[in-house]
Amino acid sequence: MSSSERTDRATALITGASSGIGYQYARQLAARGYDLLIVSNDAEGIANSAAEIRKQYGVRVSPLYRDLSAENAAEDLYRYCEDERLDVEVLVNNAGVFFFDDLARVDSRRIELMLRLHVRTTTLLCHYFGRSMQARGRGYILNMSSMSAWMPFPGISVYAATKSYLRTLSLAIRNELYDRGVRVTAVCPGAVATGLYNLSERYQRLALRLGIMMTPERLARKGLRALFSGRRRTVPGFVNRVFVPLAGLIPGPIVRLIKRKAKFYRYGR
Ligand SMILES: NC(=O)C1=CN([C@@H]2O[C@H](COP(=O)(O)OP(=O)(O)OC[C@H]3O[C@@H](n4cnc5c(N)ncnc54)[C@H](OP(=O)(O)O)[C@@H]3O)[C@@H](O)[C@H]2O)C=CC1
Ligand SMILES: N[C@@H](C=O)C(=O)O
């Protein structure tokens, strides 16, 4: 199965498309001819993204304001698509949040929000839309995991665990849906220059120049290429691919030594 320029009215649903990587997925899917349904928790931000993409690509773009960490978020979104008779051919589960803190220290509401957004809602969206896609015999699901899926490190315990869950989930459902014409890909980036960790623009520019970070445009291009060529997973960036098998080999005492010494770990303490 491959996707080129589309002529029918298939829809791509992208969560968290008001900014960063999700916005780039939305633009690039519009460039491929998909109509879009884009969702975020910021009414003005998602409406602005929709207006810009509509103007640039001339496709139909519907912005939807939803808190995807809410209890029935996935079911609501699925029902909305049914009511609007949207033929969702591509589902991009991208919405995400980040915090850096110890599990025992952080406000429990932040933990709950991350678990609901990354795990509960994403899983149920895969369930509902995966079911329709398999009935139709065609579809694509892209789940945003992360290189941190292989990095059970202090400060990112919940984030890394949820991204590891998404990596595993994606691989399993890929094999459940493959013979029904549905492709599932986990995208596992290292650092991408977005607002996710509130890194200043100056440091982002430096990290981009040093090749430590990737632009969201480039990441989205690589993610979609992997999705439409039916790959199970992509870890964009050579250095990231080299680091992945090494991350789990770092001994606990070294991890704890870095934690004690690292300046970034002391911020906000
Ligand atoms: N940046 C990076 O280095 C990496 C990012 N990733 C993953 O990529 C994905 C996108 O992140 P990125 O683009 O960097 O970050 P951004 O902060 O730029 O984008 C996050 C998106 O998620 C949306 N979102 C957050 N909370 C909710 C919510 N409760 N309901 C609905 N939408 C929500 C935000 O919308 P709004 O604020 O408008 O609600 C925003 O559109 C995330 O899943 C992240 O974990 C993975 C690896 C590396
Ligand atoms: N930088 C990424 C981890 O490796 C992320 O934010 O997920």
List the helices and strands and how they pair.
Blueprint: E1 11-15, H1 20-31, E2 35-40, H2 43-57, E3 61-65, H3 73-83, E4 88-93, H4 108-136, E5 139-144, H5 157-177, E6 182-187, H6 201-209, H7 216-228, E7 233-234, H8 238-247, H9 252-261, H10 263-266
Parallel strand pairs: 1-2, 1-4, 2-3, 4-5, 5-6, 6-7
Helix pairs in contact: 1-2, 1-7, 3-4, 4-5
Question: Any overview of this molecule?
Answer:
This protein has 269 residues and is an alpha/beta fold. It is built from ten helices and seven strands. The chain has helices spanning 20-31, 43-57, 73-83, 108-136, 157-177, 201-209, 216-228, 238-247, 252-261, 263-266; strands spanning 11-15, 35-40, 61-65, 88-93, 139-144, 182-187, 233-234. The protein has a seven-stranded parallel sheet with strand order 3-2-1-4-5-6-7, with helices on both faces. The radius of gyration is 18 Å and the shape is globular. The N and C termini lie far apart (51 Å). Residues 1-5 have low confidence and may be disordered. NADPH dihydro-nicotinamide-adenine-dinucleotide phosphate (NDP) binds next to helix 1.
Summarize the structure.
It is built from ten helices and seven strands. It is α/β, with parallel strands linked by helices.
